[in-house]
Amino acid sequence: MKKTIACMLAIFVLACSKNDDGPSTNPNLALVTGTWSLSSLLISPPQDINEDGTSTNNILDELSCISATLMINEDNTWSFSGNDVIVTTITGGLFKFFCEDLPRNSSGIWDLQNNTLRLSDGVSLTELSIDTDNLTLTNTIGETLPGLQAEVYTKQ
After folding, report:
1. Is residue 40 within 8 Å of 152, Cβ to Cβ?
2. Of 55, 60, 36, residue with least CA distance to 148
3. Facing residues of 96 across strands?
4. Among 63, 54, 59, CA closest to 40
5. Quick check: 8 and 1 in contact, CB under 8 A?
6. 91-109 burial code (b ≥16 CB/10 A, e <16)
7. What is the CA radius of gyration of the chain?
8. Which of these, 141, 42, 52, 144, lies nearest to 93 by C-alpha position?
């Protein structure tokens, strides 16, 4: 009987032993915190917004008034400040682009799941994929004009 109790006690102690490796952390955690600047605002089909004879998929190549900054803080909060673009349909697959006069500011909390940074403002959730090689965050929207394809942020 004593041997049985001793064996059960040994099994219990081994089964409940502490993991010396500690909790696993996402390797992207240190990467995502910091300041990110809007580097691409992608559309489809390409447009010649500034009428210089060259069409592009990136609105930032055509409109200098569009900019945005995304701050990802270590305390799992985030803030955004930037100018939005307004797109209106003209005709024949053409669109008119305007810069919003007033900047848009928003904030909330974030979490990280593998290679996805999730931003919540309490109403909606935005998921940005992390490219660790190029240090970019991409919000793939996937719409055609007058909607946007994607917005890409590059770490500063």
Report:
1. yes
2. 60
3. 88
4. 59
5. no
6. eeeeeebeeeeeeeebebe
7. 24
8. 144
Residue 124 carries which side chain, given as an amino acid letter?
S
Q: What is the DSSP letter of 18?
A: -
At 11, which amino acid appears?
A: I
d(Cα 130, Cα 140) in Å, to the nearest integer? 11
Task: Look up residue 75 and give its two tokens.
Answer: 């305390």
Terminal CA-CA length for the chain: 67
Question: How far is the C-alpha of 33 from the C-alpha of 106, rounded, in Å?
Answer: 17
Assess contact for 116 and 127: CB atoms under 8 A.
yes
Per the structure block, which two tokens stand in for 142? Answer: 């996937």
Query: Residue 93 region, left (φ>0) first, then alpha (ψ -120 to 50), else beta?
Result: left
Q: How does pLDDT run across 59-117, given as a tens digit for each residue?
A: 999 999 999 999 999 999 999 999 999 999 988 878 999 999 999 999 999 999 989 99
With CA atoms as reference, report the closest residue to 43 among 156, 143, 155: 143
Q: What is the pLDDT of residues 125-152, one digit of tens each?
A: 999 999 999 999 999 999 999 999 999 9
CA distances from 145 to 54, 80, 90 (A): 18, 24, 11
